[in-house]
């Protein structure tokens, strides 16, 4: 999502500032600003998703292994804390 935001910002800047030709019925400057705004929005969404993902990945797991007295069988118990 972040790459999409950067691409939209760059494309919008090119359309708004670097193209000096006119297209009939299309305001290229306004179109460029719209693309840049979409890119900024995509970057904000990516940042929020990244922040939410980092807080939810702090779950810790505790694993215990119980071995039988003869050493041939074991049971593993995993729990999230």
List key phrases describing it.
2 helices; rod-shaped; 81 residues; alpha+beta; two-stranded antiparallel sheet
Strand content: 15-25%
* DSSP E strands, number: 2
* Count of separate structural domains: 1
Q: First CA to last CA: what distance?
A: 31 Å
Q: What is the element layout, followed by pairings?
A:
Layout (H helix, E strand, L loop, with lengths): L1 H17 L9 H29 L4 E7 L6 E7 L1
Antiparallel strand pairs: 1-2
Helix pairs in contact: 1-2
What do these coordinates show?
The chain has about 80 residues and is of the alpha+beta class. The protein has one domain. It is about 55% helix and about 15% strand. The chain contains 2 helices and 2 strands, in the order ααββ. Strands 1-2 form a two-stranded antiparallel ribbon. Helix 1 runs antiparallel to helix 2. The longest helix has 29 residues, at about 30-55. The chain is rod-shaped. The model has no long low-confidence stretch (mean pLDDT about 90).
């Amino acid at each position: 999502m972040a790459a999409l935001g950067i691409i939209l910002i760059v494309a919008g800047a090119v359309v708004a500032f670097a193209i000096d030709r006119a297209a009939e019925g299309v305001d290229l400057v306004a179109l460029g600003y719209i693309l840049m705004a979409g890119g900024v929005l995509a970057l904000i969404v990516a940042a929020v998703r990244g922040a939410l993902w980092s807080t939810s990945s702090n779950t810790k797991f505790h694993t215990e292994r119980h071995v039988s007295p003869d050493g041939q069988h074991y049971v593993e118990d995993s729990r999230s804390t």
